[in-house]
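This section describes the prediction task in plain terms. A model, or a person checking by hand, is given the sequence of a single protein chain and must write out its three-dimensional structure as a string of tokens. No templates, partner chains or ligands are provided. The sample shown here is typical of the held-out split.
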Amino acid sequence: MWQNLKLRNRILLGYAMPVVTFLLASIFGTVTVNQVRETFREMERVNEILSKSRVMELASAGIIGSVRGYIITQNPDFERQYFQKKELFENSIKALQEKDLIQIEEQQQQIEKIAQINQQYEKVAEQMIALVKSGKSPEAIQLFKTKTGANFDQKIEDLAREFDKVEEQLILEDMRQSEGALDLLFGMLILCLILAIVASVLGVIIANRVSKNINESAQVITSASSEIAATVDQQERTASLQAASVNETTTTMDELGASSRQSTEQADAAANAAQEVLKLTEKGNYAVQETLRGMEDLEEKVGAIAKQTVKLSGQTNQIGNISQVVTDLANQTNVLALNAAVEAVRAGEQGKGFSVVAAEIRKLADQSKQSAERISLLVSEIQNAINVTVMVTDEGTKTVKSEMEIAQQTAETFAQVAESINDVVINNQQISLNIRQQDKAVQQVLEAMNSINQGAQESAIALSQTKTGTSRLNDTSKELLSLV
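The expected answer:
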């Protein structure tokens, strides 16, 4: 069967084996990679769920802490913090309840339970806040100590822990599937490597058999070619003197001479253009140097701005300190006014006027305290703006330095370009000289064309001998073609 195959089919069979092996490996690898990619997408989804679950747990703890802090200190900051944590908790619940994020129904039910417990506690928390605002802090504390308030955080934590445990198990399962797919892919790659080696060995065997057939035919061609070689040697000695058409060749040489003269003119024009480019390059280098000097001035100005910004920052800190002192004085004045009001009450009718003065002093002290707090807030905003200015100034300094380096590199590049253009001018001059020499050589070639006809007679004798060898070579070529 092998002997009946043509050479083309044998070669195709040798190539088909590794190609089929490669296609099988590619298909299997693509399927496995898609499976691994899908597994990683599932892991990303579960990680997103766990991340949002962590945020929900932290928000839950923050709600408890904010309510506790507000009950104990009655600080409005804790009340604001409570509503912030409440909003964060609700946003986390909404994010977890988005479509297609949680695909297990039991997990969705866990989130709904957590949301319900949160709603229950929000009602209790708002009751406690209302009690504190109405001056009933002991009742609020007692309500906080009840089972509903004390166990809220634990309930949320237990449900969230169960929720996270299920999601973590999903991640572990995805990782095991991914590892199994990769192990299978690795085994398939090893199998493909073995098949590739086997295919390569078979290809070598096929190549050896094909080479044997080709060598047998090549020996016949070599025998015929040896006879042709003797004739070809004789033809090569006279080939330099032959021409099918001396007139056509002469015309071509004339055109070549005209082209050489035109090339000379073009080379001269190129040299002149290079001189102009060299002048433009020098102007560009001068412009870059001017840019460098401007960059240096800009760097000095940016540095001065940075120093003034730092100085302004120090002065702002001093204003903040003064504002704090004013706040402290207002607090002390408020305390003194309160004491004075108490003493005025003790004094009875004689202290009424003094009581009015003390009340006015307290109002002024409160106004001073509020003004000082506004000043502190403004100072903080100014300080933040100064910090941003310092950062921007620092970035500006870095940018100026970077632009200076680029400009310096540009200047060096202009210098290199000028040097290269100067070399081009010299090369163009040399080319012009070479073209003139070639024009003289063309004239010499025209004179030599007259001797070509003499070789034509000698070539005619050699062609008759070449005909016999060419016939045998043609027969052998047909035999080789039938194998292919």
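For orientation: The chain has a mean pLDDT of 76.
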